[in-house]
Every structure is written in C-alpha cells, then in structure tokens.
Amino acid sequence: MGPRAACFVLVFFLFVSFASPSANASCPSGQEHWTDGGCYTKCPDGSKRTGPASCESIGIRTDCTDYGMSGTEPTASCPVGSPTLGLCANGWAITTATYTCPAGQEYYGSACYKGCPNGGHHTAACTCDNYPVTTTSELLYGRAGPPLACTPSANISPNQPLDVTFYVTSDLHFHESKEYTADSHQGHVLQINRLKDVKWPLWQGFVGSASGKIGPPVGVVINGDYTHYGHEKELGIFREFYERGRKRSDLPFWITADPDIALVFWKITTPIDYPTWVGFGNHELMGDGATDRNRSYVASKMAVGCGDVVNRHSQTAAYSWNWGKLHLIQVNALGDDSKPTGFAELMTWLQEDLLQHAKDKRPVIVFSHYALRGAESEKNLNGTYLTRFVSAFDKYNVIAMFAGHDHVADLDESRSFPVFRGATGGQTTYKVPSGIHAVHVTDASLDVAYFEWCTNNSPAACPKDKPCPLERCVAAQQPHIGMYSDPVYNATYSRCTR
Predict the structure, then answer these.
(1) Where are the beta strands (DSSP E) in 313-385?
(2) Maximum distance among all alpha carbons in the chain?
(3) 367 and 458 share a domain?
(4) Do residues 98 and 187 share a domain?
C-alpha cells in the first residue's frame, strides 16, 4: 500500500470513529439521522431516506440460484442504496472501507453485508448463491502466495492387497477473460466431491466394484490444460479451486485490481476435498513465461517425496508415483515444453522409470495430456513419436492410459491397453458436458466409469443449469487387469437424458 492510500485509510477511519457514532447516538429509538443533522422517523423496510421528509423504495432482490448443486434455494434479501449512509432494511447493515466484518456479516465489494442465509455466499452485493461456505471472515487478497503446495502422501503399503480408487479429470481451461465461468468451475468441484456417494451402476456389471458406492478417492489426477494460456492469474484461480488448505489472503495483490477476476474469487466457496496429482498440457505452454511457470509449478507440487512421487524428470517435469503395488506415470505434454529434444529425453527417462519400478510386472497406469489418436492429439504426436511412445510399454503390464486434449470422451481399444479420453471439466467455452472418470483398481480387476454433467453451454440434450444425474451418465468398464476381450462399453455415452 502506497503512502497516499495509507493516508486515505487513516483519514477515513478517523471519520468513522469520531463522526458516525455521535450522529447515530443523537437520534431516539425509531428515528434515523439525516445529513442536515436532524432526526426523522425511520423509513419503512425496503426504502431509504432521500430527504428530511421523503423516503424512496430501494427494492429487495430475491434472484438466488443454486446452479443445480443443492436441493433448495435460500431466500436472500439485501438493500440497494447508498453504502455511505448505511440505510438498510430488515437488519441488513453496510459499512465501507473497513476490510473487516463483525460476526454474522460478510465482506463483498468494499462493504459488509448481513451473512447469507442457509449457508449461502455473496456473489454480488445483493445476491446469494447456495454454495457451502468455508469461511466468512477472509477478506481482501493482500499478499503473495505461500510456497508451492506439496501433495500429501496416500500412504498405501505395497504389502497389502491392491484396492485403489481415484478420479481423473482434464481440460479445465481456467481462462483469463469472461470465460472463467466460476459457476461451472465450482459446479465441477462439487460434482467431484459428491461422486463418492454415487453407486457403480448395476447394469454395467463391474467386476471389482459390484453395486457398491464409488467411494472417496485417494486423489484426483488432473490431466493437463488446467489453464487456457498458462498465465499467473489463471494458475492462481485454478489453485484456489484445486488445492486444499489455501486462504484467500494467500493470493497476490492483482486480484483487487480486476473486478471481473475479483468476482470469480468471491464465488469460490468450496475447494476440492481431495489431494490432486497435476499434469500440464499444451495450453500451459502458450502465454509469455507460461512454460517455465507451469513446469516449475508441477515440479514443485509433485517433487520426489510429495504425493508418493518416486521419480521425476527435471527437464519436462514428468513424474511417477506408487499407490501401493500400482505404479502410475504422468508424462504431461510429452516433451512439448522443451523442444526439440524434449521428447527424446522424456523417452529415455520413461524407459528407465519402467525398468526401475515396473519390471516385476506390477500394474502400470499412464497419464498423458495427448491421446494416441484423435485429430487434435495427432497434430502434436506424429507417427514416429507415437510408435516410439507406445513401444516403450511392450515389456510391461500397462493396464490403462488416460488422456484429454481433444475434448471428446471415448475409449480407444486399438492398442494392447485401453486409452480413456475425457472431455472437459467445468468450463463452458467448448460447449460440451463436463466429465469425471472414476477408476477402481484391485489385484484382479480394473473398473472405469465416466460421469458427465451439464453446464449452461452444454448441448441442447442437456437441461439448462442442472447437472446430469450422475447415476445415468456412465461410460465404460473393463474387466480383469490385462484382459480386455469382452469389454462392456456404451460407445455413445449417456447424454444427460431424463
């Protein structure tokens, strides 16, 4: 804060401290102070004083929405009037430029408002959205972020039977423009958080999961394109949604200077419930300084010792980790961040990693932003690269690969292992339903289901503003690790029909 700003705050606080209390104290009960120094009968609820003998309706808004994330909408009311006078209806109170709010009030847009009912949260001065609120006391973002978060260990012993559940999502595309669409991003996080209570569908006949609930995952793998241009602001908003334990005061100063971005941050009320294993895609390499920024972010978050990581490639930030007897490898954008030698050096690292950690034929799952086929992926993975990449797994028990990039959800069985592609996650730019893979691996089985939900800009088949019923949006299942002869698979995907 510069000297001029500091001086302004000091003068304003003096004004509040000395002028306001004496003025308010001079009016008897049932009366209110006016700027001419007189006391007058209070205006009715829903109106404000505009002169010694006049009151004007200020209107009460009830335009609340829950974006399909909960069963009921709160009843919100809020005065619309001059915040400097603090004339509010029904016990609502406004104070300005204090940056702290009393208990029961919430800060929004340089003012304190009465807290929203039913666990809601202000998304505009007089609008509440019914998202669960993690806190109502954190206010402006005034300091730089903390050290990069280290993903915690899942602590799964390699000596116990293999039984691991995890989720995969990709192509979140947090965008430094109007396409941030915090509502749909918040919705995607809430869908991830609620997926644990959804049952594996009976009609798919899952091998290792029967008809039980999917259950909480050990973690969520984010398979690239978590930003649109790799910019600092986009990364900051992504981290606010997808890192647990962050505080709004941990964010850098620029948030207060951009009202569009500030609005997004105020709408972030529920972060993800689970630790994340992050990989980057081609969109993290697009903006000025984006490559180094995002490579450093992934390398720090997924350093050896974080998130059970056992190996990391320093040049491309590829890494591998173990969940018990399951070995997992994230190759990010397949060396795109360090051309022209990136792919060759990545392949050397990959072959060494497999030899060191998977020569005992333990199951291996690979994550890549690019798929092995698809118009967009093939632009970045030419024939020579593709052949070399796939052949690296010939001697090992690779049971599945997960990819993104093409914004198409499907299953590719043209290889010796299935490749599951996910569409997008929580963004509306590409006008496709958002999706989440649920994965369950045991010593004898691999179950995979893809769940879609609808954003505001989803295709017409999806009901507006409502998520698909997760139980109806199942995509794929594979029985038996290493045996894919008779997969049960709905190639068209359940398209949010009711």
Answers:
(1) 319-323, 326-330, 364-367
(2) 89
(3) yes
(4) no
Tell me the CATH number at 411.
3.60.21.10
CA distance 303 to 300: 5
Judge if 373 and 328 occupy the same domain: yes
Other Cβ atoms closer than 10 A to 25: 8
**AA identity, residue 3:** P
359-402 pLDDT per residue, tens: 999 999 999 999 887 666 666 676 778 888 999 999 999 999 99
Within a domain: 264: yes
Q: Between residues 305 and 47, which one has the greater pLDDT?
A: 305
Q: What is the C-alpha to C-alpha distance for residues 118 and 132, in angstroms, rounded to an integer?
A: 9
Residue 306 lies in a domain: yes
- ∠ CA 426-472-406, nearest 5°, is 40
Least Cα distance to 323 among 443, 479, 218, 195 occurs for: 218
Question: Over the stretch 429-457, which tens digit does the pLDDT of each residue have?
Answer: 666 767 888 898 888 888 888 877 655 44
Task: Give the count of domains, the chain.
Answer: 2
- pLDDT for res 305: 84
* Domain assignment of residue 139, yes or no: no
Amino acid sitting at position 197: D
pLDDT of 166 reads 96
Q: What is the pLDDT of residues 180-234, one digit of tens each?
A: 455 678 778 888 888 888 777 655 556 666 567 889 999 999 998 888 877 777 8
Are 83 and 191 found together in one domain?
no
239 — pLDDT class (breaks 50, 70, 90): confident
Are 104 and 169 in a shared domain?
no
Closest CA to 274 of 191, 182, 396: 191
For residues 491 and 471, what is the distance between their CA atoms, to the nearest angstrom? 17
Confidence of residue 3 (pLDDT cuts 50, 70, 90): very low
| pLDDT exceeds cutoff 50 at 106 | yes
- Whole domain around residue 307: which residue ranges? 163-489
102 burial (CB, 10 Å; 0-12 / 13-18 / 19+) is exposed
Structural tokens at position 313? 């490639």
Strands (E), 274-318: 276-279, 309-312
**Can you name the residues that pair with 56 across neighbouring β-strands?**
48
Among 103, 129, 155, give the residue marking a domain's end: 129
Question: Domain check: are 89 and 187 in the same one?
Answer: no
For the chain, give the percent of residues with pLDDT over 70: 53
**39 and 179 inside one domain:** no
Angle formed by the axes of helices 383-391 and 342-357, to 10°? 10
Q: Is there a single domain that holds both residue 83 and residue 213?
A: no
pTM, full prediction: 0.65
DSSP string, 239-260: HHHHSTT--GGGS-GGGGG-HH
Task: Tell me if 451 sits within 8 A of 460, measured CB to CB.
Answer: no
